[in-house]
Amino acid sequence: MLSKRIIPCLDVRAGKLTKGIKFLGNIDIGDPVEAAREYYEQGADEIVFYDITASAEGRAIMIDVVRRVAERIFIPFSVGGGIRTVEDMRQVILAGAEKVSVNTEAVLNPGIITEGARAFGSQCIVLGMDVRKVGETQNTPSGYEMVIHGGRTATGIDALWWAAEAERLGAGEICLNSIDADGTQDGYEIDLTALISGRVRIPVIASGGAGRPEHLYDVLTRGQADAALVASMVHYRTYTITQIKTYLQDRGVKTRMRW
Question: How far is it, in rounded angstroms, from Cα 87 to Cα 236?
Fold first, then answer.
């Protein structure tokens, strides 16, 4: 049985760690570099870093923040937001990241998935999916729609179809974020996570809605996720990574423990 991963998510805006609810009302809550170091020391398996306004603002990702974070942690590190070309991917990897996450650009230019996988290997290419529940329609038979530009633009693309297509194109992992659950701390979107996990063969990271350790237990078991992203519950110091992993271990969910 593979260990389940616990991955803090650092949303960054203008160089500051920020957090919102359903992609709205973001407030700055700290320094992403210090937060990354703290979570590394607590036992995080990986760190995910998103420059949340880079795509919408049409600018490059903040490489200086990537470098500073990479200097402070010694676990895998994924970076997303504002990545539009293979050269952008190269710059992020050279700055210290092990993986790059493509979301908006992958929808607009699916070939970037294949190009990135050929250049760096599928294991480096993470498909970011921001998904909203819309109900079953002809275009979205799964009932879930892809949304891009940081939650600002609906695409009409069925999320289940897109997950399978991205895997075919060469994505090595999916980070699946429910916009409806994001920041609510009411629990992950279990049905969505199980739907995507059951369709693809690559690892699925569940994102959006974590508020209590039992939420992670649910998404890692019933939701069939390979990993779970956490944000508010650790950013606001309600729980530590150590406490979350201990809770999961005590209930039979295997995690990587450093002690």
Answer: 36
